[in-house]
Design goal:
234 residues, mainly alpha, Glycerol uptake facilitator protein, 8 helices, 66% helix
């Protein structure tokens, strides 16, 4: 149960900190943190929780990460479903907290026809810069693929794992710097689900892509690391 609570709190913090920075702080005229600030916020959520609870659960905070680690031989299959459920519950709870706080401002409303509504992910008309479904799928696949390669490599027993939380946090920052204009950046099905639930509208039927592409990318990365990159015992 401690592992599941760690995944709940870690995913809550990721969604609350990352999506919260986009909702509350990104667009303030002349003072907003912009895309770069939101990117850094997402990276910092993972970095801080990796050191806070990573020793308890491994610090996945993302169904795609759990699946990729399982495929890569670094996670037990029997723990997969409980981890994913805990991550989803943590993400939705964080989205609920974000909605409650946001609704405390006069005039707050979610326009589900606008790209990035409630920090949700989308493609085509719901892409921040109008990128197609195919472009969004390729982006989410590739970025999750490399994210998992970084996680698997940085946490390998032959690696210097002392700073792996920093490496993984910076990787997520870079991922957001690349892809916020394309999909508003997912690489995390739990994060996408939580925001789509509150954004509603077309974000719900588009949610499939933000499960399929990250999970596929994670699976391919797990296989690539296991068979092509993993250092074997001497």
């Amino acid at each position: 149960m401690k592992k599941l609570f760690a995944e709940f709190f870690g995913t809550f913090w990721l969604v609350f900190g990352g999506c919260g920075s986009a909702l509350y702080a990104a667009g303030i005229p002349e003072l907003g943190i912009g895309f770069a600030g939101v990117s850094l916020a997402f990276g910092l959520t993972v970095l801080t929780m990796a050191y806070a609870v990573g020793h308890v659960s491994g610090g996945h905070f993302n169904p795609a990460v759990s699946i990729g680690l399982w495929i890569g031989g670094k996670f037990d299959a029997k723990e997969l479903a409980p981890y994913i459920i805990s991550q989803l519950v943590g993400a939705v709870a964080a989205a609920g907290a974000l909605y409650f706080i946001a609704s405390g401002k006069d005039g707050f409303a979610i326009d589900s026809t606008q790209a990035g509504a409630f920090a949700a992910n989308g493609y085509a008309n719901l892409s921040p810069s109008g990128y197609s479904m195919e472009a969004a799928f390729a982006t989410e696949f590739l970025l999750t693929f490399f994210f998992l390669l970084i996680i698997l490599g940085a946490t390998d027993k032959f690696a210097n794992t002392e700073f792996c939380g920093i490496v993984i946090g910076l990787a997520l920052t870079l991922i957001h710097l690349v892809s916020i204009p394309i999909t508003n950046t997912s690489v995390n099905p739990a994060r996408s689900t939580s925001q789509a639930i509150f954004a509603g509208g077309e974000f719900i039927p588009q949610l499939w892509l933000f499960w399929a592409a990250p999970i596929l990318g994670a699976i391919v990365a797990g296989l690539a690391y296991k068979f092509l990159l993993k250092k074997n015992e001497a």
